[in-house]
Amino acid sequence: MREASSSGHPAPADPGLFGPSSVTWQLHGDPMMWVAGIRALYLQALHPRAVRGVMQNSDFRRDAWGRLMRTANFVGTTTYGTREVAEHAGARVRKIHTMLTATDPDTGERYGIDEPELLLWVHCAEIDSYLHVARRSGFRLTGALADRYVAEHRESARLVGLDPAGVPASTAELAVYFERVRPELAAGPEARDVDDFLRRPPTHPLLVPARALLWRRVANLAYASLPPYAHALYGRTAPPPATVTRRLVTTGTVLRTVPARIRWQLPPKHILRAMARLGPGARPAPYKLDRRPAILDGPGRARRGNGGDGGRWRTPG
């Protein structure tokens, strides 16, 4: 039951950090977020200092599934939970980060994993991946709405300890950031470990056929959607961009035919809890976003996107 306000009327329910009118609220309910999350891991692993912090402070090799689910739960909590719950989740992450360090095996340097540059890399690789995969798979956003999504996530950057003023607030600023950081990227031993896991995750013998049939296809698609410089660093080629786009669109189309109410039943049911708190009108849906090209958008910009490398692609149809 909602508490009554001083006027005697029920106090409005807490919409959380973003709220039902945000781009984040609609986009994060899309099933292609799972493919985007794997792309983010591939991209994040290319920053040697950042991925070293993960590998030296976690049981990633034996509990990678757990790490994936904890990350997904954090995103769901901060997107659809109340502000209090989101702030608590952020405070917990910040506290953990302050206690962890990593060591550069080449120089012996010991550094904190909460260095702003490392946190910024993880944030940007994640937001770029969510936006890139969603748009390229058919989730239509104008350039203005894509910019709004990036700007909204200065809030999630704040939660993990970054100064929002220093975080990209548009797709153009995000592209500039990737250009600046590219010389620091490399596919070191830790990145190879991440790649090996994502290509062949350990699983029960009875589930090996499913791994080959389903997981490998998803992981390959996530890898293929990376920018060309990432393929070059990993040393593995990918299909032509047009082929990758067709596969992303096909996968997105198929996954979006699964009724949302069924998809949202999967634990931890963040979206269903948000709808129970705010009412059925809070249901995430792409059609709630204004898909008309903004006045300032260039011709065709609403149908194009930037993959973090300055390259352009076009969604068919």
Automatic annotation (TrEMBL):
GO molecular function: oxidoreductase activity
ER-bound oxygenase mpaB/mpaB'/Rubber oxygenase catalytic domain ranges (all copies): 25-256
EC supergroup of this enzyme: oxidoreductase
The enzyme's E.C. designation: 1.-.-.-
Keywords: Oxidoreductase
One Pfam family this sequence matches: MPAB_Lcp_cat
Region (Disordered): 287-317
Designated name of the protein: Oxygenase MpaB family protein
Top-level taxonomy: Bacteria, Bacillati, Actinomycetota, Actinomycetes, Kitasatosporales
